[in-house]
Design goal:
By secondary structure, the chain is α+β, with helices and mostly antiparallel strands. The protein has two domains: 2-70, Structural Genomics Hypothetical 15.5 Kd Protein In mrcA-pckA Intergenic Region, Chain A; 85-308, Pseudouridine synthase, CATH 3.30.2350.10. The protein has seven helices and 19 strands. The chain has helices spanning 22-29, 35-43, 115-125, 155-166, 239-246, 259-263, 300-311, and strands at residues 2-3, 6-7, 11-15, 20-21, 47-49, 52-53, 60-61, 66-70, 85-89, 93-98, 136-137, 146-152, 171-179, 185-192, 201-203, 210-222, 225-232, 276-284, 291-295. Strands 9, 10, 11, 12, 13, 14, 15, 16, 17, 18 and 19 form an eleven-stranded mixed β-sheet that branches. Strands 3-8-5-6 form a four-stranded antiparallel β-sheet. The chain has a two-stranded antiparallel ribbon with strand order 1-2. Strand 18 (276-284) and strand 19 (291-295) form a beta hairpin.
Length: 317
């Protein structure tokens, strides 16, 4: 790090002379460097206080505490978001559990923090060269949906996965919380990008849209809502959200397919996230033909919302 022609020594230590921020103590020792320079020493993991990492330049030190700077110290590893885990990995595939709020793939050129980024960050934490292994996208789940997601690592794996999903050979089950008391039923419709009011939905126009089939089973009754298990025969964009909304039972936490509920004068249940979770995923390995099956427990925030709805009075608006 330079500021003008000044360089930070490769390694040095000193004792704090008073109760000041770490940045201020460093600036006293490095007067030729800017405040941004000394703050960056902390945030990049170059500073310890009494041998403990000091990543926050605004933290305060007391007189006599030992502050050490080591320019060759490795940068701290950024924590992976809560809810991310690698479920399975082999030479051709990687299956992860994606947290809600993370896109499967970038939908804008500069979008960061996608599932692809999380996988590469995981590889870097393991000391692997994250950019060497490619990742091919065949399977997607919504940004606001949590749960199981598979990517291919080879062209052979990609071709096999594409066939599996194109021919609807994967077993996929979701858990969701929907408004109202849902009964067991089967939804079948043809989904188009614009049903006539600007949003994706089902059409009755012949020869338009893609066939979508969803099987719904209610597994628990909640206050003004139902916990449901859903099995997909097809995998269309927003299929579950559309079918349940058009059936009068939009998902709790829904922000897009909620118009019909509002028009009916019903108040959506408040929720900070979409209560939809890809809970199981099964398919035959696209290269070895081995049968694979994976499951992902409900995330803590999802389970907490179920518990809250169980305690909520049925009559509460």
């Amino acid at each position: 790090m330079k500021s003008g022609s000044a360089r930070v020594p490769a390694e040095f230590s000193f004792a704090a002379t008073g109760e000041v921020t770490i940045a201020a103590a460093l600036r006293d020792q490095l007067p030729a460097h800017s405040w941004n320079d000394v703050r960056r020493l902390c945030t990049t993991g170059k500073v310890t206080v009494d041998s403990a990492p000091a990543l926050d330049p605004a933290a305060r030190v007391r007189a006599g505490q030992s502050i050490q700077v080591r320019m060759n110290a490795p940068a701290p590893k950024a924590p992976l978001p809560t809810g991310f885990r690698v479920v399975h990995e082999d030479a051709h595939l990687i299956v992860i559990e994606k947290p809600a709020g993370i896109s499967s793939v970038p939908y804008e050129r500069k979008e960061a923090g996608t599932a692809l980024d999380l996988i590469r960050a995981h590889w870097r934490r393991e000391g692997r060269k994250a950019t060497v292994t490619p990742l091919y996208t065949v399977h997607r789940i919504d940004k606001d949906t949590s749960g199981l997601l598979v990517f291919a690592k080879t062209r052979l794996g990609e071709r096999g996965l594409h066939r599996i999903f194109q021919e609807h050979l994967a077993d996929r089950e979701y858990l969701a919380v929907a408004h109202g008391h849902v009964t067991q039923r089967r939804f079948e419709s043809r989904i188009v990008p614009d049903r006539g009011d600007g949003i994706r939905g089902s059409t009755t126009r012949p020869n338009e849209g893609q066939q979508a089939i969803t099987h719904v089973l209610s597994v628990d009754k909640l206050a003004r809502a139902s916990l449901c298990r859903l099995r997909l025969e097809t995998g269309r964009t927003h299929q579950i959200r559309i079918h349940l909304s058009e059936g009068g039972h939009p998902l709790v936490g829904e922000t897009v397919y909620i118009r019909d509920l509002l028009r009916a004068g019903r108040t959506p249940l408040p929720c900070p996230r979409l209560l939809l979770h890809a809970a199981t995923l099964g398919f035959s390995h696209p290269v070895t033909s081995e049968r694979l099956g994976f499951s992902a427990d409900l995330p803590d925030d999802f389970a907490a919302e179920i518990a809250r709805l169980k305690q909520r009075p049925e009559s509460q608006p």
